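hey so i finally got around to running both of the ones u sent me last week. sorry it took forever, my laptop kept dying halfway thru and i had to restart like 3 times lol. anyway pasting them below in the order u listed, first the sequence line then the structure token line for each. didnt double check formatting much so if smth looks off just lmk and ill redo it

first one:
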Amino acid sequence: MTDPIEQERQALFSAFQLLPGPDKAAVKLLAINWMPLGKSQITSALRKTLGPTGVKSIDFAGLRKSKILVSGSAWSSEHQSCNPLILELVARYAILDATFNLYADLAHIAAPLQKSYGAPAKNEIYFRNDDELIRETRLGMYWRDEAYITSLFRMFERHRSGYYQGSLKYCTDPSIIYGIVCSNPFDAEWFQGLPIGIRIKALPSTLSLLLENWRCDGQALALAMQSCNSAEALPEWINQTTKTAICRGDWDVAKTLLKQSPLNSTEHSLRGLLALVMGDIDAAIKLFQDGLALLRREQGSIKGLFPSFVGLFHIYALYQRNSTGDLDEAARLMVQGMDNAQFRPAYAILAWMPMLELDEKTALPKVRDQLQQAKQNPWTFWIGLLVLSRYQAPRTLTEYLPVMKRFGEQATVNGLNWLAAEMACLIANVDPKATSRQQQAAEFEAHMGVKLLFNRIQREEYWERALKAISNTAARPKESKEKKPWKPDWLG
């Protein structure tokens, strides 16, 4: 089974290589510039190298039709940008044909940065949005210039108060940008040529971004495993490799890696996730709770929730166990989960569970509406399916089958065997004719000796949930203690 996204990427890049000179120049400019540009910005910059005749021959309509360029941006539908699938491939192509610096200069002409002209910050950059910060950091990566990137973030920190657009406002280091560049796609040879300071931060960020989209690159994982087996293994590399190993179903590898991890909140959270997938929900919740206490101590705050998708499973585990106090604890954590911008839609779906427990008629349609909007986010989509499966028969989820199959195949192709088995189990319950998926899930359960999360769901009628809720909120009888008769102290 081949990855359809990789097939499309290679087809687009092959088409790019066959383009005539002026068209190829426009694509290079947009790839190196990163952010979208208007047609006049593109032609004005390229006129310096192509001349008036060459600029007029650029076939923007043909480039859009072939999907090498995509149109539309936050500012205007007339803006063009390079297709994200080949954006880094084109930039690396420009490195090889020694035109990268030329197009970097043209990018600064097409979309100049805002600089200060007054002392004491003369010539310092005022970043106005995420795209500008990403473009300049990315240029520094291709130039292999750590000092330039350091200076960018020093300026960004000084002028952060004027930065009002984008999710990177509170970004303190370039790790996430390194991951964006290196993961699209991962090229081991190019990556090894980067300075060690960039590689140290880039690899865990790359694995993280891939995993958030249910992807895993074999070369990136091999490099991470090699580093984790060395005496100088970094905690960030161990932690991210452990997450990937859990999702791949390599649970023995995950256990071994966790032995190398320092005892902190991240280590506790990953042990909790591993305990959950292996079926020990009580141990999982205990590890999550202890880890959360450590996290808040490390952050010096009474608030906090595990980052990435791990925090989702802390809350999901509480809902699944549903013992005394679990729902209240989950509700308290939910509020803090909404601060996680990337996984906010998943937390928003979990937030409906208290109303679903009470059989509120408006809750299910709301969850289904949110699930319709989560078809590009595999974690949110899967969490939503698990929530719906608790309150509705699986056969009512047939409208989601195409997306379920897409994510299931994506996980399978990328070797994420646990995630692939979970999605296969869902598909098999929604579509009884999907016997191959049923077999895939059953083989995983038999091999690992566990029940998948979907198979642990116990659908209950409203009256059963109501009785359970009453029993969970009932006061526990106090233990009787034998009381000794009172006597004055002086009697001894």
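and the second one:
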Amino acid sequence: MSKTVTYQEVVDALHAAVAERGADYVYQSPDVISGTCYNWHEKEDKPGCIVGWVLHHLGATKEQMAGGGGPRYAVGAYSTLDILKDQGWSFDEFDRIGALLNEVQRQQDALKPWGEAVQKGLEADDNR
């Protein structure tokens, strides 16, 4: 499947994630031992971390997000974008989208609420 994703679509999807889950939502890993974030939660059969939520909102399936070395769906933002590129997706500003999602994920992994994580990600992008 060929799909082109724009930077603005990613920003809009980040805001939609916050609107759906709430600005104060804090991601909790299903893996209480390692705290690893997952793009997809198998048990609930739904997106897990904010990157998984955003990419699913943009049309990625759980099968498309699987990959990388290590546990299924435990893949960083850049690696997940690369997985999607290998499946025909393109991104109008790949490095900028990757940096934004990576920073939002980093904030989320530090147990910041999604609203704050998105805000800090966008601030970091403004300062690039």
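quick thing i noticed on the 2nd:
DSSP finds six helices and four strands in the chain.
anyway thats it, ttyl
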